[in-house]
Design goal:
257 residues; alpha/beta; Rossmann fold; three-stranded antiparallel β-sheet; 11 strands; 27% strand; binds adenosine-5'-triphosphate; binds magnesium ion
Length: 257
């Protein structure tokens, strides 16, 4: 689905190499966590995957194609992308249902009146995340947690092949975060899309996720099964001896020793 080969990124005018020789294959149906400390290069890597940025070296293959050229819209249609930038673009006086339906425009690039079937699909999705009844409320009235769910639905209304979430739980309290993760799990299990979920909190790594790509200082630090990362104490190697990451039941936790 997504194949990154030997990807490096240098910022023009800066001597720093932001990404260095990244290889990563995301296969159909894969559910990945992209994990790394602040400034490690996660968002830059996502920008390359989604075509908002271009690597200085290496090749990107998406859905079997080397490059999408001017037809980047075709690419965007197949990738649902949630980031803080998208979050800020949300106008606060837009109705909840319109915000979800507007996900269709993002890919089609065409402003037309949505059909009743499309509104029906949006209403159904809103119901699924426990926000039934709020369809005609304005976005500005929603809590941050509710807003994040609506953003996710906006990305999902096109039935993308890949859903990318860049730190979607930032700013959410523990309950809102759990509700968001539950909505993500249930919507992902009934569809067949792949997921890349970016975070730097192990507490967000639910049993939905099987694989982890850990990036550090622009380089691949670990790539593989989450279980293997735990067995090999990869998190301690990443954060240093003062941080412990452990499993309790189905979830992961971190603590300062
Ligand atoms: N235009 C730019 N010019 C110079 N440096 C940049 C530019 N854009 C990003 N960087 C640097 O690249 C590095 C990686 O940035 P990136 O946004 O990918 O980090 P991140 O892993 O997403 O971090 P966070 O968890 O804080 O979101 C950072 O050190 C950042 O300062
Ligand atoms: Mg980032």
């Amino acid at each position: 689905m997504i194949k990154l080969e030997n990807i490096s990124l240098d910022i023009y005018g800066s001597r720093r190499r932001i990404l260095n020789k990244i290889d990563w294959h995301v296969e159909d149906g894969d559910i990945w966590v992209l994990f790394g400390r602040n400034g490690s290069g996660k968002t830059k890597l996502l920008e390359i995957i989604t075509g908002y940025n271009f690597p200085s070296e290496g090749t990107v293959t998406r859905f079997g194609k080397g490059h999408f050229g001017s037809d980047i819209r075709e690419l965007r249609k197949r990738i649902g992308y949630i980031s803080s930038v998208v979050r800020e673009m949300f106008s606060s006086n837009e109705r909840v249902i319109d915000a979800v339906v507007s996900g269709l425009y993002a890919s089609i690039g065409l402003y037309r009146k949505p059909s009743s079937t499309e509104y029906g699909k949006a209403a159904d999705l809103i119901q699924r995340v426990g926000l039934g009844g709020r369809e005609h409320d304005v976005i500005g009235h929603l809590s941050d947690g509710e807003k994040q769910k609506i953003l996710m639905l906006r990305a999902l209304i096109n039935d993308p092949d890949l859903l990318i979430l860049d730190e979607p739980a930032t700013g959410l309290d523990i309950i809102a975060r759990e509700e968001f993760l539950e909505s993500l799990s249930s919507l992902t299990k009934e569809r067949e899309h792949s997921v890349i979920y970016v975070t730097h909190h192990v507490e967000e790594i639910t049993p939905l996720f099987k694989k982890i790509f850990i990036i550090d200082n622009g380089e691949c630090f670990f790539k593989g099964d989450i279980e293997e990362a735990l067995e090999k104490n990869i998190f301690t190697s990443l954060f240093g001896r003062g941080v412990e990451v452990f499993r309790r039941g189905e979830r992961l936790y971190s603590s300062i020793k």
